[in-house]
TrEMBL record:
Domain annotation Penicillin-binding protein transpeptidase: ranges: 280-496
Pfam families, A to Z: BiPBP_C, Transgly, Transpeptidase
Enzyme Commission numbers on file: 2.4.99.28
Keywords recorded for this protein, A-Z: Carboxypeptidase, Glycosyltransferase, Hydrolase, Multifunctional enzyme, Protease, Transferase
CC annotations in GO: outer membrane-bounded periplasmic space
Organism field: Lichenicola cladoniae
Catalyses which reaction(s): [GlcNAc-(1->4)-Mur2Ac(oyl-L-Ala-gamma-D-Glu-L-Lys-D-Ala-D-Ala)](n)-di-trans,octa-cis-undecaprenyl diphosphate + beta-D-GlcNAc-(1->4)-Mur2Ac(oyl-L-Ala-gamma-D-Glu-L-Lys-D-Ala-D-Ala)-di-trans,octa-cis-undecaprenyl diphosphate = [GlcNAc-(1->4)-Mur2Ac(oyl-L-Ala-gamma-D-Glu-L-Lys-D-Ala-D-Ala)](n+1)-di-trans,octa-cis-undecaprenyl diphosphate + di-trans,octa-cis-undecaprenyl diphosphate + H(+)
Protein name from the UniProt record: peptidoglycan glycosyltransferase
Region spans: Disordered: 571-608
Similarity comment text for this entry: In the N-terminal section; belongs to the glycosyltransferase 51 family. In the C-terminal section; belongs to the transpeptidase family.
Pathway named in the protein's UniProt entry: Cell wall biogenesis; peptidoglycan biosynthesis
A molecular function GO annotation: peptidoglycan glycosyltransferase activity
GO biological process: peptidoglycan biosynthetic process; proteolysis
Length: 657
């Protein structure tokens, strides 16, 4: 009877504990809110975006970390880690005894599980908070085991400012993943969480190094004479459009790309040195022969004077002007209804009420297919598409993974498709032009390492060779004299109403597509593919062909931004605070699950912290230990302002989607 009562009591207690665990689960929202890091093709940091709560944080597992760091962490913070269930009774008893005898805290009794509990739910360091940590520590280890709990700590460990977790800290401080850390780097990452504010390496490097040296000393190790473990790596926003694209796809953590970091920065400098269309900008996409992306610049215009400049023009679908003409000619060559020497009529004619005209408003009489394509005459191109058939032309492109978007209300493709009467993205246009150097086989463009896609023929090998030979004779862009000798096949295009200017080139090693215009889709009078987009294409090809495709860092050297993320930099010599996230003029995703608006992380640099934030005239409340974030009321425009401790301010206008 006695044992039955004991068993019943234990059963009730167990069920009660399980019920409490289900009713009050750990809040893992911070653990799951990850930032995004883009790495280039040599695993160097290319760009990054903070998490929704404003932190640089990457999901981290023990397998991602150098074993030496883990050993040093456990020796320093919880040397009986493998022997207790989340709380260490011996450490707690020792801490209580020292407090009773000396009337002050001599050593703490916190385990890594207790520290993790506090990281998940920040609270004041009082008795109630300590009790909460004890209970949560037991819960964490019971739920996730020691390995799972340690992964949470490795992801959330405060490493100074808004840098959290070992992977994020290693990338931002040392420029590499934490799988291979030096002894000094490991000691620094162990030391900073003890006093993350006072040991920030960017603000207090001497204190951080001294604390790291003490960590090593307590483990019987020495600093080894190295006085500066903090590597200085250039970290800048070099691929903002690609970053936004990956973010919109739900990508978080570390994303390795095929982007060539040196070429990307060189292309950005070239674009910034050129005069963009009024209230417009340039965009560029460069792919290698294997269809991997080397350069992705979705726009580089000044946000304050360029409506819609937050749009990524690499993925946006716009009218391609005349850039699709070579593929209609190639299909006609394939089906035997046309040859490069066929005479086409360039004269006034109508097609069931459709009366196209040439860009120069002139008619040139009888001309060969070769000359008609090189000179981009419209009337011959419409005749060629009529031979091929608009429906067959569009369906052939679709079978290759190239999907044209017809104007709203259009039920079937018509002849205007060949003159830009359907929208296409730069990604798809690059896939098409890349096929010219690959015997007419279209493969999808890739921006992440991986196997090549399945190729589909847009035209046969013979037709592809004929099109390349014709396009190599296209008149070169203004100021280019040695174009034909370099074997560059290219085509330009200007959309109706001068909204989009295009240039696309194919060489044996590279495909280059450039665009110029206004991202909001309004007209930009005066732009043409030949005069506006082609000069940028020519300059990019100059860089790509130097030294057998190796990077030529033309112009000023890359600005070295220091060893930390942009969130921890002072930008330029102006000491006013500047808003980094959300970036001025950008669009931010506000809608979350169920239509509820999600928080938008706020990040600033420069000036003198702490910062105060104001959105649309209302101050943003920041909880102790939390990161500044603002929850929009709904879609629309918002004015974000930041004020530093000296009263200096910065502001940004953003759009909430």
């Amino acid at each position: 009877m006695k044992w039955r009562a004991i068993t019943s009591a234990l059963t009730v207690c167990t069920l009660g504990v399980v019920a409490l665990d289900r009713v009050f689960p750990p809040d893992l929202s911070r653990y799951r809110a990850a930032s995004l890091f883009l790495l280039d093709d040599e695993d160097r940091l290319l760009d990054g975006r903070v998490s929704s709560d404003g932190a640089w944080r990457i999901p981290t597992r023990r397998a991602d970390i150098d074993p030496g760091y883990v050993t040093l962490l456990l020796r320093t913070e919880d040397h009986r880690f493998a022997d207790h269930p989340g709380i260490d009774p011996f450490a707690l008893a020792r801490a209580a005894y020292q407090l009773a005898v000396r009337w002050r805290i001599v050593s703490g009794g916190s385990t890594l599980a207790m520290q993790t509990a506090r990281l998940l739910s920040p609270h004041p360091h009082d008795v109630a908070g300590k009790i909460s940590d004890l209970v949560r520590a037991l819960q964490l280890e019971a739920r996730y085991g020691r390995a799972g709990m340690l992964d949470i700590y490795l992801t959330l460990a405060p490493e100074g400012g808004n840098v959290e977790g070992i992977r994020a800290a290693s990338l931002l401080y040392f420029g590499h993943e934490p799988q291979h850390l030096t002894l000094q780097e490991a000691a620094l990452l162990v030391a900073i969480p003890r006093r993350p504010g006072a040991l920030r390496p960017d603000r207090h490097p001497d204190a951080a190094i001294a604390a790291a040296a003490r960590v090593l000393e307590r483990s019987g190790l020495t600093w080894g004479g190295d006085t500066d473990p903090i590597g200085r790596r250039p970290v800048s926003h070099d691929a903002q459009a690609l970053l936004g694209h990956e973010w919109s796809l739900g990508r978080r953590g570390i994303v390795r790309t095929t982007i060539d970091g040196g070429l990307q920065r060189t292309a950005r400098r070239i674009i910034q040195s050129m005069v963009p269309p009024p209230r417009g900008e340039f965009a560029a996409l460069v792919t290698r022969r294997n269809r991997t992306v080397a350069i992705w610049i979705g726009g580089a215009g000044p946000a304050g004077d360029c409506p819609g400049c937050s749009v990524d023009m690499v993925t946006a679908r716009r009218s391609p002007g005349s850039t699709l003409k070579p593929f209609a000619y190639g299909m006609a060559f394939d089906q035997g209804t046309l040859t490069p020497g066929t005479i086409l009529r360039d004269e006034r004619m109508g097609f069931s009420g459709y009366t196209p005209r040439n860009y120069d408003r002139l008619f040139h009489g009888g001309t060969t297919a070769t000359v008609a394509l090189q000179q981009s005459y419209n009337l011959p191109a419409v005749q060629v598409l009529r031979l091929v058939g608009p429906a067959r032309f569009v369906s052939t492109l679709a079978s290759c993974g190239i999907h044209l978007v017809l104007p709203r209300g259009t039920t079937a493709p018509g002849l205007p498709v060949i003159l830009g009467g359907a929208a296409i993205s730069m990604l798809d246009l690059a896939s098409l032009y890349g096929a010219l150097a690959e015997h007419g086989m279209v493969e999808p463009v890739r921006v992440e390492p991986g196997p090549a896609g399945i190729g589909r023929p847009v035209m046969g090998p013979r037709a592809a060779r004929q099109i390349v030979a014709i396009l190599r004779g296209t008149p070169p862009p203004p100021g280019v004299t040695d174009w034909r000798s370099r074997g560059i096949a290219f085509k330009t295009g200007t959309s109706y109403g001068q909204r989009d200017a295009w240039a696309a080139a194919a060489t044996p090693d590279w495909t280059v597509v450039t665009w110029a215009g206004r991202p909001d889709g309004t007209a930009s009078p005066g732009i043409t593919g030949r005069e506006t987009a082609a000069p940028l294409m020519a300059r990019l090809l100059d860089v790509l062909t130097l030294a057998d495709g190796r990077i030529a860092e033309a112009g000023a050297p890359v600005e070295r931004l220091g060893d930390l993320s942009p969130a921890l930099q002072r930008l330029g010599q102006d000491d006013r605070p500047r808003i980094l996230a959300p970036s001025p003029g950008s669009s931010v995703e506000g809608s979350g699950d169920g239509g509820r608006m999600q928080p938008v992380g706020l990040e600033a640099s420069g000036g003198t912290p702490p910062y105060r934030w104001i959105v649309d005239g209302s101050p943003v409340v920041v909880l102790p230990g939390g990161m500044p974030a603002w929850r929009p009321d709904g879609p629309g425009f918002a004015h974000v302002a930041v004020i530093d401790a000296n009263g200096r301010s910065g502001a940004a206008n953003v759009r909430v989607r």
